[in-house]
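User: I'm putting together notes for a lab meeting next week and I want to include a structural view of one of the chains we've been expressing. I don't have a solved structure, so I'd like a prediction I can at least talk through. The sequence is below, exactly as it appears in our construct file.
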Amino acid sequence: ALATVLGGCATLKARPDVPLAADEGYVVMSVNCATSNIRLITIFSSGTRSTSPLADLRGEFEFGCRAGLAAIRAKAGRHYVGYLTEHGYGYVGAVSEDEALTFDVRAGETTYIGEVVVSGLFDRLHSRPTWISVRDREAESLRLLQQTQPWLLARHPFHTRLATPAPGAPSA
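Assistant: Thanks for the context. Below is the predicted structure for the 172-residue chain, given as structure tokens.
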């Protein structure tokens, strides 16, 4: 995972000395779980089942709820939030692709998908709703990228393609 900083949280930065492969792009995002007990989300490629045995080994990358703004290398194509990991015992809630927040990455581009907002309480014993939606914070995210990683914007065209919220999720 390659990341920048938002809100004072130190994270890894995308590295200018590591070129993208021909089938890769950057996805720019942040995650907010302030109204949830979730602490970590896991991203899967479209077609990879997050609900199958050992699916945790097939996730593309994990992203903490307080990691800040991140520029993450990813294969071109559709991706989705397939796992939600809660605080405390670390129970995992799997989300099937057809019920998940989705986004697309294009090769050679920097794609801003928004701030992923997780709300509601995950409870593996009860059927309490956990919602995943998206909030557009493009202006401040773009300013931060220009300040901290101008090379990223100079080398890879920047596009805003907000993620598609999970079906039925309230607007953020």
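A couple of points you could mention at the meeting. The two ends are 25 Å apart (CA to CA). The chain has one domain: 24-160.

User: Perfect, that's what I needed.
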